[in-house]
Amino acid sequence: MNNVQLLSKPAAPSSITKPIELYIFIDPLCHKALKMQTMLRKLLVEYEHYFTWRYVLSTKLASLNSLSRRTKGCLSGVELDITHPALPSIAIKAAELQGKRAASRYMLKLQEHALLNTKNITSYCALIDIAKESKIDVDEFITDFGSKEAGRAFQCDLHITREMEVDEVPSIVFFSERIEDEGLKVSGMYSYEVYVQILQEMLNEEITCQPLPTFDELFDKFITLTTQDVAEIYSISEHQAERELKKRMLQQKIERITNDDVTLWRKK
């Protein structure tokens, strides 16, 4: 594994309640982010008792100041709608001001529309609609979307990306609860077993895997999954995964959403 580097801990890390903390650097709308998400879901299902995690948005964008002014104009009714490639990232940070779970629900719904090509996710109005679908506080989201805090939070993510010299996304930096220990940066994507091995080496002990959830428990946890997600989590073929998913669709526990390129399964 060549793309590994030791790093010092960030100046103001988030509070750690478990031995390991993961900084996951992604461009949320890049196809590689979805592959990373599949791996992370399996890691969460099996080893979440060992680590906390946070996404760091590493989209390479500019002109955030002018974007902030235009967004305020939109909120005041001067503009009916705007589009900009920075808007999805700022929207995720606006949702994050309502908590990590709200941000996760929002980003998953955003990725769902991006995958299915059902909304122009660079559109301000579309991003407001996604907030409604995500069941977060829409009024608060709109206020935060037009505030300086969301833009600053996104800029903070970009600063962390530069500070840790992350030049490839997705990447993960592993930090131990021991402040004196250096973090371990793993650039790019590797097999699932590599990340498990890193967890074990950083903990310096044999780690135990949690029992796999039932299908119902899995959809309670993640709401929307791809066939590949299910196959990876249960270590079965995609054909087997699809067969099991279709059974639950017939039981009206989940629904299938599809286009020519992708199939998603969502809890009803």
Q: How are the strands ordered across the major sheet?
A: 1-5-4-2-3
CATH fold annotation of the largest domain: Glutaredoxin
The level 1 CATH classification of the largest domain is Alpha Beta
Domain count: 3
The CATH superfamily of the largest domain turns out to be Glutaredoxin
Number of helices: 11
- Gap between N and C termini: 41 Å
**Computed structural class:** alpha+beta
Helix content: 40-55%
Explain this structure.
- The chain has 268 residues and is of the alpha+beta class.
- The protein has 3 domains: 100 residues, Glutaredoxin; 83 residues, no CATH class; 53 residues, Orthogonal Bundle (Arc Repressor Mutant, subunit A), CATH 1.10.10.
- Helix content is 49%, strand content 16%.
- Strands 1-5-4-2-3 form a 5-stranded mixed β-sheet. A 3-stranded antiparallel β-sheet has the order 6-8-7, sandwiched between helices.
- Adapter protein required for efficient degradation of Spx by ClpXP under non-stress conditions. Interaction with Spx stabilizes Spx and exposes the C-terminus of Spx for recognition and proteolysis by ClpXP.
- Its main location: cytoplasm.
- Belongs to the SpxH family.
- This is ClpXP adapter protein SpxH.
